[in-house]
């Protein structure tokens, strides 16, 4: 019963690429459903890191020696790989970052510092992760700008009817999440960017929950900036990238100063390299970039459409089975959604439910998920969140349902 439709993809052997999944936690087989927080890493990525450190490790763009040229070549090839992965026009449109948070802070400080004026408005949505909210609060305060928000409907989708009214001439930038990390809502990114572009508003997309889960092409979407994290798509922590349309990046001043980003330095003044190097001060996370490229190779072997289909099958299956659990309510849209299920259990705090599950080997997340304003919008202290990736199975969902059914009995 409850079998998935089979596809030619060999999911069991893909799962076997993730050694961490094969372990017991609290005496039970681990079920890892905290993928929206960070995903696990396949052997292929771990091997790429190991190979780099065992054979090529050196600083980039500096030494005139063989290892440094190899490290530089691998680092710059990784940039080209990222550009291709998200459909950028050129590797020069890719800045390596520590992740989504750093990419958004870069734009807030470099773009906002140069272009925002007193009285200007930044348009966000009510469903933004703190990473796509706090950086704008900081720069708004520095520049005397204001924030404005697209509301979220009760079903977890964005209320798009007021968008035209919200995009007034004071709005200079519209930043929104591609996929909500709490609700699973997939926002119509191309449509939102087209509306903003039509009135000359710059766009930034938080791609933390989309880049590793579905095909993403920044030129088809038509955004100006797109930020994402490597660690949420099989790459190492501390890796990620910011896409900036060439014309946009070229117009931005540096935001961090230091080595690597300069052309020449005098005691009083310096001149800077062109984008993207101007934004990468200091020794970058070279291994992280190489690991990110290895993760991209890995994901593309499976195919992002195949991953998206698998996500949808798992999520639909979980939603269907949740109906068997009394007193449980899933947040977010009833139709198409990302592989994220945020839910609440009547009269039980999400921390208690998540700890109950952990004792049975099921790793989920409980709390506000860095979405405090959104939780307030729904009148909740938080939710419990199960988030899936392509190595998860329907059998694991069946076990989750059994554990949650036990929780219902335990907590009543
Ligand atoms: C939607 C969204 N945006 C931004 C972030 C921040 O990503 P990072 O911590 O990798 O910078 C997350 C992480 O959970 C997220 O889910």
Number of strands: 17
Strand sequence of the main sheet, in spatial order?
Answer: 4-10-9-8-7-5-6
Structural class: alpha/beta
Tell me which ligands are bound: pyridoxal-5'-phosphate
Name the average pLDDT. 95
Oligomer: single chain
Beta-strand residue fraction: 15-25%
Radius of gyration: 22 Å
Please summarize the sheet with the most strands. 7 strands, mixed
Q: What are the low-pLDDT stretches, counting only 5+ consecutive residues below 50?
A: 1-6
Number of helices: 14
Bin the helical content: 25-40%
Measure the end-to-end span: 29 Å
Overall 3D geometry? globular
Question: In short, what is this structure?
Answer:
The protein is of the alpha/beta class and 412 residues long. It contains 14 helices and 17 strands. The chain binds pyridoxal-5'-phosphate.
Could you describe the 3D structure shown?
Helix 2 (43-56) packs antiparallel against helix 10, helix 4 (100-115) packs parallel to helix 5 and helix 11 runs parallel beside helix 14. The chain contains 14 helices and 17 strands. Helix content is 38%, strand content 17%. Mean pLDDT is 95; it is low at 1-6. The longest helix is centred in the first third of the chain and has 21 residues, at 66-86. It has a 7-stranded mixed beta sheet, with helices on both faces. A 4-stranded antiparallel beta sheet has the order 13-14-17-16, covered by helices on one side. A two-stranded antiparallel sheet has the order 1-2. It has 412 residues and is α/β, with parallel strands linked by helices. Strand 1 and strand 2 (28-29) form a beta hairpin. Pyridoxal-5'-phosphate (PLP) binds at residues 36-37, 99-101, 129, 131-132, 177, 181, 206, 208-209, 229, 231.
């Amino acid at each position: 019963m409850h079998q998935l439709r089979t596809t030619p993809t060999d999911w069991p052997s893909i799962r076997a690429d993730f050694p961490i999944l094969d372990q017991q936690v609290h005496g039970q087989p681990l079920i890892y459903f905290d993928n929206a927080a960070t995903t696990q890493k396949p052997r292929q990525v771990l091997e790429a890191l190991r190979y780099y450190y065992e054979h090529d490790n050196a600083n980039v763009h500096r030494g005139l020696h063989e290892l440094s040229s190899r490290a530089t070549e691998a680092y710059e090839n990784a940039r080209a790989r990222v550009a291709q992965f998200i459909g950028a026009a050129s590797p020069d449109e890719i800045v390596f970052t520590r992740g989504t948070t750093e990419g958004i802070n870069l734009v807030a400080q470099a773009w906002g510092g140069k272009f925002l004026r007193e009285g200007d408005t930044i348009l966000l949505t009510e469903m933004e992760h703190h990473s796509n909210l706090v950086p704008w609060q900081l720069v708004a305060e520095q520049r005397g700008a204001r924030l404005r928000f697209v509301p979220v409907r009760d079903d977890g989708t964005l209320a798009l009817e007021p968008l035209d009214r919200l995009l007034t001439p004071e709005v200079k930038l519209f930043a929104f999440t591609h996929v909500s990390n709490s609700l699973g809502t997939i926002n119509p990114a191309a449509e939102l960017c087209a509306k903003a572009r039509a009135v000359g508003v710059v766009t930034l997309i938080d791609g933390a929950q989309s880049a590793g889960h579905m095909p993403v092409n920044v030129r088809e979407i038509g955004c100006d900036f797109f930020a994402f994290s490597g660690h949420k798509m099989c790459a190492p922590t501390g890796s990620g990238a910011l896409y900036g349309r060439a014309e946009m990046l070229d117009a931005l001043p540096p935001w961090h100063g230091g080595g690597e980003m300069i052309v020449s330095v005098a005691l009083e003044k310096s001149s800077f390299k062109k984008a993207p190097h101007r934004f990468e001060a200091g020794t970058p996370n070279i291994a992280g970039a190489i690991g990110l490229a290895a993760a991209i190779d890995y994901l593309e072997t499976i195919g992002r459409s195949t991953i998206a289909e698998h996500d949808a099958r798992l999520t639909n299956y979980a939603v269907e089975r949740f109906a068997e659990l009394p007193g449980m309510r899933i947040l977010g849209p009833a139709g198409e959604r990302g592989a994220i299920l945020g839910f609440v259990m009547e009269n039980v705090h999400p921390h208690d439910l998540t700890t109950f599950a952990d004792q049975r080997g099921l790793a989920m997340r409980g709390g506000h998920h860095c979405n405090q304003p959104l939780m307030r919008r729904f009148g909740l202290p938080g939710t419990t969140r199960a988030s899936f990736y392509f190595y998860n199975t329907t059998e694991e969902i069946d076990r989750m349902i059994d554990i949650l059914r036990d929780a219902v009995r335990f907590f009543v």
